[in-house]
Amino acid sequence: MKRIILFLAFLVFGISANAQTMKVQSAYADMKNKRLAQAKKNIDAACEHESTKSDAKTWHYAGLIYAKLVEVSQTDEKLYKKQKIDIPIPELAQKSRLALEKSIEIERVAQTSEFVGANTNTLNYVIIYQFDIALNTFNSGKYAESVPLFEEVVKGAKAARNKEVEMKSDFCIAMAYDATKEKDKAVEMYRQLVKQNTKEEAVYINLFIANKKSNELDKAINVLKVGVRNLPGNYRLIGLLSGAYVESGNKEEADKTIATLKSIADTITENKPSVLVIIGDVLRDANNNAEAITMYNQSLELKPIQTEANYGLGVLYFNSAVDLKEKADKLPFDATKEYDKLQKESKGNFSLAIPYFEKVLAIKSKDINTLNALKIIYSRLEMTDKYKEVNAVLDSLR
User: What is this structure's pTM?
Assistant: First the structure.
């Protein structure tokens, strides 16, 4: 009698297991025939049943079905509404991603690869959808909320071996940390991305700035060197590197990078005015004012209406005026003639700076740096009305 009961038990189990296997197949067929709600119902049951929940195929189909729901929600609103599914679409995408990752993991342990290719393709679709959701959250200013969303994308990207999406997500996480003033976390993310030879220009620039703020100029220079290696011909990075070499007193390397920038300027047309301004800035900071003026003027010839070259020339004459005044103030009390001469030259350079700064304000009327520079100049030159006018604008901005 016991044998008969045992046999019946195995028979019932076999019938149940077979029924669940059929549900997996039915779920796929339902999906193909756009019966998505029924497909979801069948695959959910199979994912929970003992006989099928450890099968890579079950989770493969689960991932496909949930991904299909996400896709239809974006492409066929009428069909999606017909399914009467009340789960939020981002949650459907997450369920799809987790199911696909589980299918991949089951096959990895079993050392099989029947569904790996299809799983990876579907996973890439899902993580791009999730990336867009995270990016929209970031772009709406919800930086802290975007971080866990990007972190989920990173997990999926690693499973799909999609290095591009993984690194873009890490980059967004770093910028989110920057935006929420979590500078240490941001810097650590930037460092990881540099080690991975990212192609994101902003990573190198932001880490360069962070290292400079920490008074680690050598590290800042090394970051830019990696950036220039990975983004050859990027004149912004080369320009920053040139300036860093000037600041560190490495004239030989500064001259090399300046020569590279000049070579770039000779071979391009679209961004040539910008490159010439960068060269002018580096030369100005290296106290080569004559050649810097030439670069700025060449930029203005190509693009007369701009702020960059005008601001560069304004700064050049402003700094020169400040240097002359400081030199005059350090003279002995009885060096009257030399003092008057330097003071006159200083005021002359302040005057030369005015039209360039005013051209900047004609385009960017609320540029704080330009307004502050003009406030100082108008004060030095006793231009009372102009001083009051600029001061009033600054007060309104405060």
Answer: 0.84
